[in-house]
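W.,

You were right to be curious about this one. When I first looked at the sequence I had no strong expectations either way, so I just let the prediction run and decided to look at it fresh. Below is the sequence, 176 residues in total, followed by the output.
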Amino acid sequence: MQKNPLQSILNVIIVALMLLSGQVTFAQSSAPSWMGIVTYVTDGDTLWVQSIDHSTWHRLRILGIDAPEICQPWGSEARQTLTALVAGRQLEIIEFGQDVYGRWLGRLHIGSIDVGQWLVAQGHAWSYRYLNQSSPYKQQELIAKNLKRGSFALSKPKIPQSFRKKYGSCRLRHQV
């Protein structure tokens, strides 16, 4: 029996929507993990990691968070905080593929600390939201907002996604 190609596409879309909404999840253990050392922090949610055996370098975006752009209020502070936390340190990376910019997406752990969760809890990043779906660190974000931690102490903190939509990427504006 031949499958209808439109039905196959529809099935993929349904599964993707279920994943985004949190109705279906993959066990974290099914994602590949590796150990690395942070060599450079680009901004509050992107960094460079070298594998422990020094064989590969990866540009990595922390999955589940969205930190202020470097040219946005609190962007420099978010980068400085991430740098202080991870630069030169060994961490575990749990990989979840690549984004459209070629960056690896991953959750980072220093011992038992989930780096993305910690950044959101301290107000240095927002819990990433896509198409109004539930975000992974929503509770930590609400607590940081209520306690006015980090960027949430600003009079009108702007979600990085909204900032990029209005002003564009800092990197694009500063390229020669």
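Here's what jumped out at me. The longest strand covers residues 33-41. And, maybe more interesting for your project: Strands lie at 33-41, 46-51, 57-62, 65-66, 90-98, 104-110, 113-114, 126-127.

Coffee later to discuss?

I.
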